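seq as requested:
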Amino acid sequence: METPHLRPRQEYIDRYDRITVERCRFVENATTAQSLEKYFKPETDKEALENAAITFTKLHLWFVAGEMYSKKYDTIAGWMKADEELDKFYERTEAPKGICCLMCGRDMFVTLKHLQTNLDADPQVLFMYDCTLNHLPRRMFFNNGKEWIPEKPRCTKCNTVVDQVSEDTEKMWKTTSTCPSCGNVEVSEIERTLFKEEHDPDYDNDRARFCDEKEGEGYVEWMRTAKEIGEILDKTKEKEENKELYDAVANIRRLKIIQVEELLAPVLEKKDFVRLQFKDPEITRDVVVPFTTHDIQDGREDRASCHDLQKLIKKTLEDTNWRLMSDGVTYRLGMLEGRLKAYEKEEDLIKLVSKK
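struct tokens:
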């Protein structure tokens, strides 16, 4: 069974810190006095340029290290989640059945299970099968049932399948390819040292400088404060540009439910709409209050009754934070029903005023 992709959390922290160190090292070496000359007057002395380079580099480093820290734990959580999903996929993926030996026809059994990942494609699991009688060739199938047949190396001159001999030494891997047709010989050498991680004597010191948690938290707090200040300044500017609108919002009468009932009842009674009653409010994001009233005016038909009531309510509540809802009122046997909606948040009140 393969080693799980999900590793101890510290390994992910180490991986992220190494990326941070490499980026910060690049920044630290990117700006020099010479690179800043074109931004200064020709007579600027070398010492001034060097001081400018040092100041710019410190500021740039602070931002780069801070941004890396601000994304650190979300990124690590994403890496761990992705590896955990790969492990789950590997565990639940079953090998294709009915794979037979090409020599004897017997069912073959799985001797290797390997997870293949590619940035440009979905992960796949590759299974290797062996014959119970050790016949060759072995066979390999992906979890979708497609057989994997490795391409044989070919001669670069005549495209004939070549013979290969591999040789491993302490310093390198060497492969010699010989073409049986044209005699072309090609040698490929890979140094083992390319795959060995060299000791970095400055890494621990640089990691302490660039991955400091206290510095990172300071940057995050600074950015949070700067964002809040920016939002306040934007809001202040927006209010100044729309002063009349905000003045109108300030003049809106913000009424409680009982105050709305006390305001409407006498106004409605003067127009023969009596016994105004509010039902239990519907409270979600908004506050909506259903109501009923009765029309006692003789001869007023249902359409006229609805029209008069709606007009009367809209006019009475015009300078308040309450409105008759768009579904209007309904009429039945002299009783009218409707719903009132309260506007509480500033952004809702702005929209309310803007409609006038």
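The CA atoms of residues 30 and 57 lie 8 Å apart.
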